[in-house]
Amino acid sequence: MAYAAFRSIGAYAPSKVLSNDDLAKMVDTSDEWITKRTGIKERRIAANDEFTSDMGVKAARLAIERSGLDKSQIDMIICATISPDYFCMPSTATIISTKLGLGNITAFDISAACTGFVYTLSIAKAFIESGMKKNVLLIGAEKLSSITDYSDRGTCILFGDGAGAAVISTTDNKEEAIIDIHTGSDGEFADLLMSPNGGSGSAHDALEQEATSCYMQMKGNETFKVAVKTLTKDVIEILKENNIQASDVKHFVPHQANLRIIKAVGDALKLDDKQVVLTVEKYGNTSGASIPMAINDIYESGRLQDGELMLLDAFGGGLTWGSALVPFSPVKK
Ligand code: ACO
Q1: Catalytic residue IDs
Q2: Which residue of 187, 219, 229, 296 lies most exposed, with the fewest beta carbons within 10 A?
């Protein structure tokens, strides 16, 4: 039986910092309000000529190097993004694949907003367990600054840019395997968080098209309530179904949307503060990149050790949600 092992992680954050004080000069807000309501102090912003694919490439190089594989062994690449280099085509995954020189491998994007990385993980697991692929490169990369309305204080304070990547490989050792992944969605709540313009769903006269923006719009408070409820329910279920106690989880890695959401879920699971991974303060919400960037944070700071169990938990536009029980299983040297 082929199992899927989470072998390595990498991430990249652009150097430009946008602080709460910077935002207070752009919209009617303050460092105090943003810190109290979200826990965010600053976020990173990509350069004008730095695309989602460029950030994805930097994160992916690290993940491949740390996996111990030669890049020629990667046989599929999936990119989770809602801010692709180009809407429609080509996919950001194909651009990243070519920039990395991965050859003519399977490459595609998926759109599941902030749950994107958990969705890619479930796809990689299925491909590997079925024997169709052996080493899958996953990327969550976002240039959210390109779809953020910097005149809307309800959203612009939340989002930032960055990328994370992971390599998932086949193993016959069940001890190393990803234990379980849940994914779900409910389009009934689509209007809570959406980019209403720019697609075939936005009414416009095809012959008199105006330039449309893909800015995100969000009903923040309603989204907040659904997020807490959904994230909590999802992790309780995945733990119960796999007969795992919350205390057995070494690292709870939630989507980094809002410190208050993360705290509410952590409290519901009775998690200790040191189990909860937090990067929201320095990166804000980087959507599909947020979970792999957070895993990379504990990896690079030496907190993530071989074999330790991670519980991933994500929620985002769609609405979509997902959770995963993932031991960190680098190749033994
Ligand atoms: N600065 C100052 N005041 C503000 C700001 C701001 N940046 N934004 C809103 N306010 C005001 C509002 O106008 C409102 O004023 P009023 O009481 O006079 O009407 C007041 O603050 C309260 O507004 P709420 O929207 O109720 O504030 P809330 O506490 O809910 O915080 C926030 C807003 C931070 C957006 C929060 O709702 C949130 O984090 N929501 C969830 C986001 C999320 O998880 N999204 C899903 C993932 S993202 C993805 O998938 C891409």
Answers
A1: 114, 255, 285
A2: 187
pLDDT exceeds cutoff 90 at 189: yes
d(CA 101, CA 258) in angstroms, rounded, equals: 37
Q: How far is the CA of 250 from the centre of ligand 1 (A)?
A: 31
Which protein residue has the closest C-alpha to ligand 1 atom 50?
316
Give residues (CB < 6 A) around ligand 1. Answer: 29, 33, 37-38, 113-114, 153-154, 157, 193, 220-221, 223-224, 227, 257-258, 261, 285, 287, 315-317
User: What is the overall mean pLDDT for the chain?
Assistant: 95
CA dist., res. 78 & res. 128, Å (int): 13
CA of 323 to the centre of ligand 1 (A): 25
Q: pLDDT-based confidence at 199, cuts 50/70/90?
A: confident
User: In DSSP terms, which residues pair with 136 in a beta bridge?
Assistant: 76, 168
State residue 325's pLDDT score: 98
Please write the tens of the pLDDT for every residue from 139-150.
Answer: 999 999 999 999
Q: What is the pLDDT of residue 208?
A: 59
Which of 206, 232, 225 lies closest to 321, judged by CA? Answer: 232
Q: Are residues 141 and 53 in contact, defined by beta-carbon separation less than 8 angstroms?
A: yes
Cα of 324 from ligand 1 centre, angstroms: 28
Q: What is the share, in percent, of the chain residues with pLDDT greater than 90?
A: 92
Its pTM stands at 0.96
Which tokens belong to 87?
A: 């809407």
pLDDT at 212: 61
Q: In this structure, what token pair is assigned to residue 190?
A: 């689509």
CATH of 1-333, one of 1.10.606.20, 3.40.47.10, 3.30.70.360, 1.10.1040.10: 3.40.47.10
Question: Relative to the CA of 82, which ligand 1 atom is closest?
Answer: 51
Domain boundaries, the chain: 1-333
Quickly state the pLDDT bin for 213 (edges 50, 70, 90). confident
Spatial distance between the Cα atoms of 81 and 164, rounded to a whole number of angstroms: 11
- Ligand 1 centroid–CA 38 distance in Å is 8
